[in-house]
Amino acid sequence: MTLFLQNARLIDPEALSETTGNIVIDNGKIAAIGDMSAPPDAQVIDCGGKYLAPGIVDLGVKIGEPGERHMESFRSAAMAAAAGGVTTIIARPDTAQAIDNPETLEFVTRRAADAPVRILHMAALTKGREGREMTEIGFLRDVGAVAFTDGTHVCEQTKVLQRAFSYAASLGALVIGHPQDPGLSKGTVVTSGKFASLRGLPGVSPMAEQMGLERDLALVEMTGLAYHADQITTARALPALARAKAAGLDVTAGVSIHHLTLNALDVGEYRTFFKLTPPLRDEDDRLAVIGAVGDGVIDVICSLHTPADEESKRLPFEEAASGAVGLETLLPAAMRLYHAGQLTLPQLFRAMSLNPARRLGLPQGRLAEGAPADLVLFDPDAPFVLDRFKLRSKSKNTPFDTARMEGKTLATFVAGVQVYTSEE
Amino acid sequence: MAFRPRHLLGIEHLSPEDIRTVLDLADQYVDFNRRTVKKTDALAGMTQINMFFENSTRTQASFELAGKRLGADVMNMAMQTSSVKKGETLIDTALTLNAMHPDLLVVRHGSSGAVDLLAQKVECAVINAGDGKHEHPTQALLDALTIRREKGRIHRLTVAICGDVAHSRVARSNLLLLGKMENRVRLIAPPTLMPSGVAEFGCEVYDDMREGLKDADVVMMLRLQKERMDGGFIPSEREYFHRYGLDAEKLAYAKEDAIVMHPGPMNRGVEIDGTIADDIHRSVIQEQVEMGVAVRMAVMDLLARNLREDRGRALAGETYV
Fold first, then answer.
1. Which residues, including other chains, have CB under 8 Å from residue B251's CB and lie 6 or more apart?
2. CA dist A227 → A158, A206, A235 (Å)
3. B188 lies in a domain?
4. B112, B135, B200 ranked by CB distance to A317: nearest
5. Residue B310 within a domain
6. Residue A78 to residue A225: CA distance in whole angstroms
7. Which among A45, A164, B161, B299 is least surrounded, fewest beta carbons within 10 Å?
8. What average pLDDT does chain A have?
9. Name one GO molecular function term (chain A) (predicted).
């Protein structure tokens, strides 16, 4: 079936441009872009001048399968993704039972197969994510692992990491690291400084991120690995990242939308929905990292979607679970950066759609003829107040509860099929 | 009377006026406690529950005595041996106790912020008797009362707080209180026991004890906990005593009439020399214990008044402002 989307503001993250035009979708792909008229017998959708962008490719979503399906299933995550304009989920392996062997990976692949959005899977880099023995990286790649990561568990044994890196490099596998010095960050729950001291909470120096990154980059230089740093959230880590890129290492980096829109003070009176890993940073760091996304030093913005149930959050701050859901709030939160004039819409979609797809070697993320018709139609100005109990995720742990936000998804398309329509 | 708080969770939430109100009333209770018959009916009919999730002897005894002298029915719950061991969460424990209709809950907990969390879930007045490394407000108030009675004022004094500042909720509450009352506060500790970002609190930071003590009116020593003594934070007990233990030689740098305080329990020969602790001309450590009971009586009396007023308003159909 042919679909004709007319009168849209088209966001092209490759050309970093915005134009008004129409799109023809045929066979799940973008067949034409421009000011042509509708082909005969095409289904016409009028976009009413709203914005159309390549669907978001969310690198690093935690789903509770296997083991914690009460927190998030593939189905609930996919519904949340569709409502948030996310057309491809890259699922994390840091589940209750780590996805560290081909059998488990095949199981989750089957479970995720009939979801309304695309779901791709990462696998653990070491068995049980324990940092002792590498996983069957070759077999895991054969059954579809798109990248390898131990999540926020940092390998303390550099020798193990060096071997895993060189083995992964020989297979051309992408490894995602969590740059953090494991010794300094152990037992900490916030960023050190005046606020941490006032609240009496154990804090980690922002220096720990730079230290972790420098170690990983040295190993990348030794092994020639393709490496992505999952979260770069501090100003002091940026020069090391920029130097590695300039030296020609195959390195990219990401940051979560929460670290771009919230800071350490948001924890306030021990609000556990703001407990994240890495912890929220000072305002200076937040602004520096936004700048780095604009400059392209940081490549990817993700939701860092981490479901947690009410029980694990209704605890004293130090004991509470870390992480926040983000699939549905990534787009409206990103609009805060747009409305503040800090990043343009094409820059945002370069970081949310184009770059993560490119990094994983996927054809998504582009608004170009021949690209998959994975699209999001949205209104960046539509205001609303977020009610966490209306989220589609099974877990409701969002830091944006009761926040005033702007930016609503109107429709989401995956391979030319409309998988979400706004009720309004 | 201006004191309006519903709970006493920390010094952070008190105004200088609130603090003065507590100290003025506590002064009256000091005299009261020195009588032979020391019983009033300020809390008659009210139930006070002491929930100590962490071990405590002196603070719990002080709260218990304060409640009994005010006529409350006091119950002590040893939380380490109770339902917490069976896996009950803090909030469920709070809800269970709430259903028994207590009027005052005195809570000590090992996690920073735990008492705030509990206070959100109960309908009575909550007093923080120490939460993790966050606050210990009645300790700061009793220290302030001790200082005011010794020095005649609780403003424009130079107060040196020495020792394990990083792990001390006493230091945090004192820092906040002394700052609110416009005193000059100095923190003295080795860098490993100094929390980060403290200079931004508006205090002076020293790692040399002699410099830090210079011309101080008040010297507050902090307890060094046993588990911090070996290797991790300081090289050894004896090196710590040499550099940061309060002895006559170091105390000589402070003002001639400087008073010496310690929240107890003391480690003689680690953070304080025994002869200094026992010097009745300098040490006010025993007075601190006495002031503790009076301050806790004042705090509970004031919170009980607010509680009665709020409940009266609720009965009259007015909304709580």
1. B213, B219, B258, B260, B276, B282
2. 16, 21, 20
3. yes
4. B112
5. yes
6. 31
7. A45
8. 97
9. allantoinase activity
B165 Rama sector, left if φ>0, alpha if ψ -120 to 50, beta otherwise: alpha
* Judgement on whether residues B62 and B145 belong to the same structural domain of the protein: no
Spatial separation of the C-alpha atoms in residues A367 and A299, rounded to whole Å:
18
For residue A25, what are the β-bridge partners?
A3, A30
Q: What is the pTM of this model?
A: 0.92
- Cα–Cα distance, A358 to A57 (Å, whole number): 10
Residues B23 and B129 both lie in one domain: yes
* Exposure class string for B100-109: b at 16+ Cβ within 10 A, else e: eebbbbbbbb
Residues A264-272 have a mean pLDDT of 96
Test B112 with A197 for CB contact under 8 angstroms.
no
Do residue B112 and residue A200 have CB atoms under 8 angstroms apart?
A: yes
Q: Which two tokens stand for residue A397?
A: 């742990």
B197–A195 C-beta distance less than 8 A: yes
Same domain assignment for residues B251 and B297: no
Give the count of domains, chain B: 2
Same domain for B169 and B266, yes or no, is: yes
- Assess if residue B12 is contained within a domain: yes
Q: Say what the ipTM of the complex is.
A: 0.86
Per-residue pLDDT of chain B (321 residues; tens, 9 = 90+): 579 999 999 999 999 999 999 999 999 999 999 999 999 999 999 999 999 998 888 999 999 999 999 999 999 987 776 656 667 788 888 898 899 999 999 999 999 999 999 999 999 999 999 999 999 999 999 999 999 999 999 999 999 999 999 999 999 999 999 999 999 999 999 999 999 988 888 899 999 999 999 999 999 999 998 776 666 899 888 999 999 999 999 999 999 999 999 998 999 999 999 999 999 999 999 999 999 999 999 999 999 999 999 888 888 876 554
Closest residue to B89, CB basis, from A194, A200, A315? A315
Same domain membership, residue B172 and residue B121: no
Judge whether B146 lies within some domain.
Answer: yes
Identify which of B12, B132, B196 has the shortest CB distance to residue A196. Answer: B196
Contacts of B196 in chain A (CB under 8 A): 192-194, 196-197, 203, 205
Interface of B with A (CB under 8 A): 12, 89-91, 109, 111-114, 116-117, 131-135, 169, 172, 195-198, 200-201
Residue A24, both tokens: 């023809």
Q: What kind and span of H or E run contains A381?
A: strand A375-385
Does residue B187 share a domain with residue B159? yes
Structure tokens at B133: 């490394």
All structural domains of chain A: 55-365 (3.20.20.140)
CATH at residue B86: 3.40.50.1370
Q: Mutation target for A interface from B133, B176, B194: give the one with most A CBs within 10 A.
A: B133
Q: Residue B47 annotated as binding?
A: no
Both B119 and B202 in a single domain? no
